[in-house]
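P.,

For your records, the input lines for the assembly:
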Amino acid sequence: MNTDIEELLRDGMERFTAEVHAPGGLAGQAGRLHRQHRRRLAARATVACGAAAAIAAGVTFAATDGSAGSGVAQARTVAYVTKRVENALAGENLVFVGRSSGKLWGNTVTWAYRSRNRFEEYWPAADARDRVVNGQRLWDFPPQDRGLPYLAQGTALVGGKLVGAYVTYFDHRYSLSRLQPQPASACSTNAALAMGAPLIPTTHWSAFIGATLACGAASVTGHVLVDGVETTQITGKPITVRLQPGYAKTVHAKFATVRWALYVNSKTYLPVRLDGSTKTFGGTAGSYTSSSSTNVRWLPATKANIAMTMVTIPPGFQQVSSVADQ
Amino acid sequence: MADDRAVGELERFLAERADRLMRTAVLLTGSREAGQDLLQTALERLLRHWRRFDGDPEGYLRRTLYNLAADGFRRQGRLQRKLLLLRAAAPPPADPIAEVDLRDALVRLLLQLPPRQRAVLVLRYWEQLTEAETAAVLGWPEGTVKSAASRGLQRLRELAGGWQNTEPQLNGERA
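Structure tokens returned:
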């Protein structure tokens, strides 16, 4: 037996597959998967430090619209809100936990504490398979992946140094990068882009809110009940950016428009919810909007909670040189 | 639209080769469902680079197929492999009518091997590639291919030996 095991194996494989035929519609299904892949790329284009960093080199400011707050009343509101947020966060030592669900996204969770953060996205739950937008199913994924992590992004401790990390669980890969500094300005295009997705652009909320209100990148737009809690609504000015040519070619869209609104507890002035949306358009892929709503909780800075703010590289994952290879 | 054209061209490309590709994918994964999933993933990757190919994209597609399989074909492969292991570890059915010969058993045992060893054995004995050609497809050193094939065959021999040892008992029960 030992001498001809190769021959037996070959025969066995022939027999095993003799009745196997490819089902029809393989090409069409591959096309649908491909379009989904591009949509996810497009949506992720504007995500966060990664996104901000990834497209920072590529976006060019195209236009802004919406109304900027101005005048004495607005200045007073800015000063008041900023002061209250500062007071709320002053001396606090809290861990930010944001959980979101979105139309194009699976559920996400963001943990942040000072310069550390971990953003994790999950495959959608089972019912997402049936969600249809513009006549196309949004997700097509193996049933056993439901609710499992899809990717993680944030900071990791490697060789005693804090670095940027991007882990994709579906292909067992990860890449490391130098830690990106916070956006130079809360009023920058990159900061606004980050607000359009579940990832957060800052952990310094008082400074962020104060700066966006002061420069007119956002304004106080009212008071809203969020889950029974009275909140002050702060709305960012929508911005539209032209995507980098190479990137635009990949996602078949030329522009992205980002909108966001932040709700801070009217008593504590801690952020409790962030709503954001990113719309890509102007290409052959048509127009797609990904929106998300992130609910925020603030936890004490215990050792266990702080540990949750770091990305862990699972053993056996393959390191690649950049996010582009993932 | 450019996409529709690419899908149309892919359809024509698959018209003659889909069955053979599907069979390879089934051997690499162990079931039709997982094989189809693997082939779909490889085809989607092919579409990403479709415009690059002036000539025949089959080489790229096969490389993608084998490399996805060798990488364990994503995380969900783990669960499937566990199920296959459970299935393969179970004793052969004691049904006297069921004719399970060594050739069939070897294929089931093949599914117990790690994905990299399985990919090498499928390339070597199903595609009938040389060690050098196998190394080229997988992008591995030839020595790695040689040792993976050797370890894979050795493991198959061990597993097949265990399987054969159960046969007389089964025959005895039948008698």
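Two observations worth noting. Chain A touches chain B at residues 1-2, 5-6, 8-13, 15-17, 20-23, 26-31, 33-35, 37, 142, 144-145, 148, 169-172, 252, 284, 318 (CB under 8 Å). The two ends of chain A are 44 Å apart (CA to CA).

Regards
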